[in-house]
Amino acid sequence: MDFDWNTLDELRASYLDGSAGAADYWISESLLRGYDATFARRIAWKWHWVLRELDRQRWQPPQGVVLDYGCGTGVALREVMQHYPALRQTALFDRSARALKFAAETVRQEFPEAEVTPRLPDKCGLLLVSHVLTELDEAGTAALLAEVAKSEAVIFVEPGTHDASRKLIALREKLLPAMHPVAPCVHASGCGMLAESNDRHWCHFFAQPPNEVFTDSNWVHFGRIMGIDLRSLPLSFLVLDRRPAPPLPLPQGAVRMVGTPRIYKAHMLLQGCDAAGVGEKRLTKRRHAAFFKAVTKSRVPTLQRWEVQGDEIIEVAGIPSDAVPKNTAVEQEDLT
């Protein structure tokens, strides 16, 4: 990794302090290349995690144009195209002409059979919004909502911060009359995070980087120079769909595990979201030894089925894919 580390570090600092939205920060093609090989890879791993969560719910994207809004280097679009091979009609949009050109060329190189349009389409099937919300002012948010209105479905993937999560929740509540939530929500009621008791909490999750990251000297060098914990990939996400909602809800007891469990010697506190709201439940190691161990190693899906008495989890199980209704009339293969 032979990049201009100072420029990359300045770019990261602008993201962290909230100043990135003030102006076009893609000052050179070398910065775009460096970003795409480093920070964008970490975003790609977040998208991979989100798409696998959608697989567990047997969700399939609508047909039509896929638009990457605020595309940067186009990493979100490339991950989605890799995951859904049928999606090859694409569009890109970014305020930066330099980034737009870079993203279009990169997509064409990786997917030579794809149709790539570097401008906003009249309408689209799937809208991708990746690490954009925290850079938008009121006018920028209004412009984004105009694109949402032209889309059948939208996937937001944002940093796993309190601010980004609250922005996603605000969009969810605004868009609910016209679209239904697919994930991470297990219900279409008001968001439980908006309860006053949850002011300090936020809806976030953790993706897992590939194992080779921890043995690759280039990534170790990157982590040391940038001051980044390579193990930590926090994210917030939201998937909304304008197509008819599934005729049946998720199984009774469906809950989404949110945030980081608080682990003690003999028990842990898990924050779960369901139609009743968001709150912590207690799980004992003695009653659920195998699950307890799996949670500590981050080896359980976030979508769970709990039987709860009071504040204690009595029974716990994952939700198999065949228990999740299909989201559209399109025929899908069963997931294994």
Characterise the protein shown here.
- The chain has 336 residues and is an alpha/beta fold.
- The chain folds into 2 domains: 5-241, Vaccinia Virus protein VP39 (Rossmann fold, 3-Layer(aba) Sandwich), CATH 3.40.50.150; 254-318.
- 32% of the residues lie in helices and 24% in strands.
- It contains 9 helices and 13 strands.
- The protein has helices spanning 5-17, 29-37, 39-56, 75-83, 97-110, 138-149, 162-175, 217-226, 289-296, and strands at residues 66-69, 89-93, 115-117, 124-130, 151-159, 180-183, 205-206, 234-241, 254-263, 267-274, 277-284, 303-309, 312-318.
- The strands form 2 sheets. Strands 1, 2, 3, 4, 5, 6, 7 and 8 form an 8-stranded mixed beta sheet that branches.
- β10 and β11 form a beta hairpin.
- α3 (39-56) packs parallel to α4.
- It is globular and about 55 Å long.
Summarize the structure.
The chain has helices at about 5-15, 30-35, 40-55, 75-85, 95-110, 140-150, 160-175, 215-225, 290-295; strands spanning about 65-70, 90-95, 115, 125-130, 150-160, 180-185, 205, 235-240, 255-265, 265-275, 275-285, 305-310, 310-320. It is an alpha/beta fold and about 325 residues long. The strands form two sheets. Strands 1, 2, 3, 4, 5, 6, 7 and 8 form an eight-stranded mixed beta sheet that branches.
Largest sheet: 8 strands, mixed
Poorly predicted segments = 328-336
Strand content: 15-25%
- Name the CATH class of the largest domain: Alpha Beta
